[in-house]
Write a structure and sequence with these properties.
This protein is mainly β. Helices cover about 5% and strands about 35% of the residues. The protein is built from one helix and 14 strands, in the order E-E-E-E-E-E-E-E-H-E-E-E-E-E-E. Strand 6 (about 70-80) and strand 7 (about 85) form a beta hairpin. The longest helix is centred in the middle third of the chain and has 6 residues, at about 105-110.
Length: about 200
């Protein structure tokens, strides 16, 4: 995992990656996922809490004032053996908890212009946040992807865990009961947001 702003990272015992404090402004993360058992069709991102992050909220963001994060740009690309990158189309995004209509991780993918007071994909202080991205289901899933996340100022994610799934219908664990789906081509007008149906842990990316 790499940082454009010079952040350093350590891996927790549970596999999550913890960013150093304080947060540089601006910052962007680049990380890679490689699947030895088939193509990657969905991506799950967990923004988690950690005692090393700014008190009293301990994350999930690195903002000193309130522990928030704001992902303003999110790009996914397939990586070839020669290192060449080809953009992967994200067709839908699921998030938990749901913050407000029309604002979520799909807006980070589209870089949707929104009011400055609203995060594109962001989380409340002291509350873990999850996003799941679905790739085009008629594409062959890449065996390796690179993900680039851009942040608003110092509001980067403080503790991050990510997974890939070969299941293009992957959702979130059954314990997540408020699951919101956002879907539309980048050049299409916004569509209504509907509540998605949770599935069991085995189907989660």
């Amino acid at each position: 995992m790499e940082s454009s702003g010079g952040s350093t990272f350590t891996r927790r015992d549970d596999g999550a990656i913890l960013a150093s404090m304080p947060a540089p402004q601006p910052d962007a993360y680049t990380f890679r996922l490689k699947s030895p058992a088939g193509g990657i069709r969905a991506l799950r991102l967990d923004a988690l809490l950690d005692p090393s992050l700014a008190q009293p909220h301990i994350g999930p963001g690195r903002d000193f004032n309130n522990g928030l994060f704001d992902v303003t740009g999110l790009d996914v690309a397939a990586t070839a053996a020669d290192g060449a990158e080809t953009p992967v189309e994200v067709v839908a995004a699921y998030s938990h908890p749901w913050r407000r209509p029309g604002v979520g991780p799909i807006d980070a993918v589209r870089r949707t212009p929104i009011p400055m007071s609203y995060p594109h994909w962001g989380g409340d202080q002291g509350t873990p946040n999850v996003a799941v991205l679905h790739f085009r289901d008629d594409d062959v899933g890449p065996e390796e992807i690179v993900v680039k996340a851009e942040f608003n100022g110092g509001k980067s994610i403080g503790c991050l865990r990510f997974y890939g799934s070969a299941d293009p219908a992957a959702r979130l664990p059954e314990s997540v009961v408020t699951l919101v789906r956002e879907s539309a081509p980048a050049d299409a007008p916004p569509r209504p947001i509907v509540v998605g149906k949770p599935i069991d842990q085995a189907g989660a990316p």
